[in-house]
Design a protein that fits this description.
The protein has about 80 residues and is α/β, with parallel strands linked by helices. It contains 3 helices and 3 strands, in the order βαβαβα.
C-alpha cells in the first residue's frame, strides 16, 4: 500500500486542444497520484482535438502504461456539446 489507505484510483481528464500543456499535466498528475494509490489509471478523453494532442497522448502512452486514451472524433455537433449551457 502507498502512503494512504486508498486502494484503486481512476482519474478522468477531458481534453480538447491541449498540445502546450497535456504532457506536463499528465506526468504531474501521475507523479502525485501514484503516491496515493497502488492501482492507478489515468483516463484521457480527447474530445476531437484538432491540434497535435492525440499524437502527444500516443507518445506518452508508450512510456506510461497506466494511461488509457479515449479519442472522440470531431463531429458537426461537437462545438455545441462542448459549449457551456
Amino acid at each position: 500500500m502507498k502512503d494512504s489507505e486508498c486502494g484503486g484510483l481512476s482519474i478522468v481528464l477531458p481534453i480538447f486542444n491541449e498540445t502546450g500543456v497535456i504532457e506536463k499535466t499528465i506526468l504531474d498528475i501521475y507523479a502525485c497520484a501514484s503516491r496515493l494509490a497502488e492501482d492507478l489509471e489515468i483516463i484521457a478523453v480527447n474530445d476531437g482535438s484538432t491540434d497535435e494532442t492525440q499524437a502527444i497522448l500516443g507518445r506518452i502512452r508508450l512510456s506510461l502504461p497506466n494511461l488509457r486514451v479515449i479519442a472522440h472524433k470531431k463531429t458537426p455537433d461537437m462545438e455545441r456539446r462542448l459549449s457551456p449551457v
